[in-house]
Amino acid sequence: MDEEEETPTIHYTPVSIDAFFDKNEIQKDIIKTGIIILTKHQEQLVRRLLDALHKNAPDRVEPLESRLRRVEQLAKSVAKFPSLLERTALNTTVRTPESLIDSLVSYQEDGDTMLHLPAKAILGKGFLVAKIHTFYSMFKLAKNYAHMEEKLANEYNNETVSMMFSLLAEDVYLNLIKDRTLPMHMRRQLANSLIILWEHRSDQTISDIAPVLQSVWTARRKLAPAFGTMMGTSELLLVSIQMDEQWTQFIKKRLGDAEVSQAMEEFLFGLSYEQIQRLRNILREQGVKAIGRDEVSAYLGERVKTDISLDYRDFYLLYTVRRDNARARGRLRLPGPRHTLEDFFIQFVMEQNDEKQQNDSFAKGE
Asked: The pTM is what?
């Protein structure tokens, strides 16, 4: 898509575009737009690491500062493209936030949508990936050179994982926006969230959810004895993740849904729905009640990545496999989950938030 270049100021002001619905004209001076280079928390992490490196490994300071400058330059380049939150005259059309939402909810074609998305959305993803790699390198610097305590060093890894979930959220939003079983107001709300994510490359809802999904991912290590049976999985998760009320409510209210349960199995075991069914049949026929992760490949007769790595890159890799499998089942009308666990959980959280907002509005008499 061709877009005329603009140079907006790179300052961030939280903005809701709900107010723009049903308006023909959008005054460009009502909102400020811009990509978030570093959040306040990230700025604190950068300063802390640079201070520690100045003291303990001064030769590592300049390379890190140089890398951060490149990330900033990349953000400035992305910001030169027209804002997605403003009325923009393109070569042959005028784009508004509402028209972009209309386009997102109406597009139902299968396949990669990259060439149908705004250039700013695609370029912003590259910026986010560069930022993720930068913070992971900062985690290694904090751990190996800055002599930080483990708890402080892990904050850099946690921030890396949180940004990875923002990358993942983009796919989740696109999946749910196309889901015609969801009410239209929810799909439009998801499209709204996606546009704001594209604009700022930051999403508070996902930042809040990220620690929960990371904890569930970590809990997978305890599931090896139950391979092939799924006995007690829901109880284990309630014990493991009981510190989060939203996750507990999700398990209680949604795990009874067959598709959610199947998506949960894929997430926990690192196997596709089809592989899980085959493995269950094999174990049942052979009278085997449970096996270890290292035995799965032998039973299935194919190489299966079932190790319990906590690397954020493995999390995203396995997510994309589950995502692609779910899309294929939907396209080919095959049995099994047509959404990922992340889809279901984020949908649940947004529905809960929407219900809370409606209740609050009702209580206020609006």
From this structure: 0.83
